[in-house]
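Per reviewer request, we include the raw input and output of the structure prediction for the construct analysed in the revised manuscript.
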Amino acid sequence: MEILAKPAIPGERASSPFKTDKERHNRQMKTGKTFFGRMAFAVAAALCSFGVMGADKVVNASSFGWNAEDSTAALQAAFDSGASKVIIDRQAGDWISRPLFITNSNIEVVLADGVTLMAKRGEFYGRNDCLIRITGKAKNVVLRGVGKATIKMNKADYHDPKQKYAHSEWRHAVSILSAQNVTVRDLTILSSGGDGIYVNGAKNVTLENLVIRDHHRQGMSPISVEGMTVRRCCFNETFGTPPNCGIDMEPNRESNKFVNVLYEDCEFNGNKAHGIDLYFGHFTAKTHPVSITFRRCKAYGNKGSGASFMTGNPVRIEKYGQVKGFVKFENCEFAGNGSVPLKITNHSTNSMDISFANCVFDARGSRSESAILFNNNRYPGDFGGLTFERCTVKLDEGRKVCAFEAPRGYGIGGRLSGELAVERGEGRETYRLDAFAAKHRPRPELISTFKSTTVDYLKLKPMSGEFPAKGKFTPSVRRPFVYVVAVPDAGEYKVHFKSRKLRVNGTGPVAAVVQMLDRAGTDLGMIDVPVGDFEYVIKSNGANVYRFEVSPRNTAVIKMACDGAAGALQADAPVDLFQAKNRSFYFCVPAESELVSVNISPIEPVQAKLFDASGKEVADMPYQSAIMNFNVKRGKTASDEVWHLRFVKILDDMRFRIGVGGIPLVSTDPNAVITAK
């Protein structure tokens, strides 16, 4: 899971034509089912009998009507009535509803014992349709249950292709947006098409005594919040779409905040990925310092890690620095998880403090090689800034206490302190983290840097005169990329696209949007590439260079090929490949080049080899997840050469670049290489 760029949905309104949530609500009320007309008299009569609501007015939702098929109008009228307390009282069946909005301040909504507020089947087709949205800058809002009270959606329907729901991660059960002093407690929240609870732009949120289970994306996603206390809540059995975690604290931008956040006596169990996921990819040194505490929490039986913490995005860390502040774990337990109990990724020596006190990391029975993993594989910098006090590690025989991974030459260069009490079978030992850090000290003399280069389209030309009549397809490319075609003469040249969706329920028939330009940058128009096989014909008046700037859509991966010309992926910026095992990429090394530089950035483990023009292996990357730079020195040659990079083994996703010494255009056919004049 990489997640370096997840979609930002400010206020969850990205696809809405309405300016405000209230406007959206009003339109929904106007376009409701016909039986709402039959309810209108009852609702109006109830409002008249109440008159102008007093600050202490208590109403039953049933006073506004109840209908076994759809009670949206009655519930919304109760919320909008001005009453300080709305009781959703028990009826002969569930309270069935379309999306609801709480926009009033100073309101308490109570689900009575035995009540289920149920999302209506055959509705919620909007990608951002939530069952309850607390928004509109509402203040002092309480949503709570009494006894056995439940809020439930229909996740199985949203997964069912026959129901034709557009793919979405945002059909949340409860969404708290830009509201203040909000309390949600004493409820079971089940089976949403997104998160059980979504929090963004809120202040002073309290969540207590909640069972949050079986959600599509996350049990809860805090995006930005100032002041949040979460007590005695369970975030269990999330599965559907990544990240698939109990909670995922993941900001959308560097201006988001996690300030004074406390989790106390919570459980994160049985989720498809991690129990606790802290993914701070958008945070930088410009972000307000974080302050997060987990106290007496447990993460059991998750298929991934008990807790996974990515403290920053490598590119942003290098450019803007890393967020400051602290994250504390006190008296927490991580056990029975499929992977490591604890993983910390991309943590620099100049970042927040992370501490663990009186915690238990139980890796017995897991598939991991260690209990704790410090992973800086994708960050070219030293690791540090952690403290462990009175913590215990439980291991199977032959497994490690800690593991450290980083690009060659980088190490633990900052504070890593404390001692761990280790239990392995019948044995007991003390494990010193300062000694572990010393074994992984930085070795700057071993660091191999990558020197980038650029493409000059005006100087490009085909290197060979013997072009393949039938072009050889590239492997699948996952994110935006550029495909360059150098045609030798006037004529027609077929460019082939082959695409597929990685998710069956990705929306729409378009696999990619393509901007076409010539060597001078002339705009040649846009192309919508459909899912499947597609052919475009270049009609050239002479030798020229064309570029296809490809932006994949709808989770599609794209392959490309060109007949009768030189075609290549542009590799001065990272090329994101998907499943390119045993594929070779050929590129030109100019005669005057004395150094050839290649950068490989695994997202998942990769093995790669670099070969010179004679076929001799000149650099090798073992199967690993750490960044690798090849810097191969060579003597000048009489003419340009063709070298190739081969990916021997790859799990799924990886990126690579060609730097100085090579023309950063890579072809899958040695007869389709592009060079410079």
